[in-house]
Amino acid sequence: MDLVDITDGSGNAASPVLPEHVKNYLIDIDGTVGEDIPNEEPERMSTAEAYPDAIETINRWYDEGHQICFFTARTEDHRAVTEAWLEEKGFLYHSLLMGKPRGGNYHWIDNHVVRATRYSSKFTDLVRRNAEIEVFED
What we know:
This protein is an alpha/beta fold.
């Protein structure tokens, strides 16, 4: 993916960004795109069910040129089984980040715009409900 060079107010180089029409999707795995499997039961990870609507939606975003990164609390010890599961289920993606902090109640602090979406039972396109929040359409 080509990044766009940007400068700060003083003309100094700043971290490059994606083109405006491209989104960076960071997507949890367990309980979000498939059955919720805790790290303490890794033997279940390879047989977990995937949510068909998640596969369809994420693959469409991928085909539209968006960046897909799965960001999971699974550990590096679970990388091979996770990559095999994603491939078997047919998920298209660019990257996989392991070791997301466990326990929820996330507060993301960043110098870029961050939009958070809480998954609740149906994986569909995001729709804007107001200027601050994007949610999954029911």
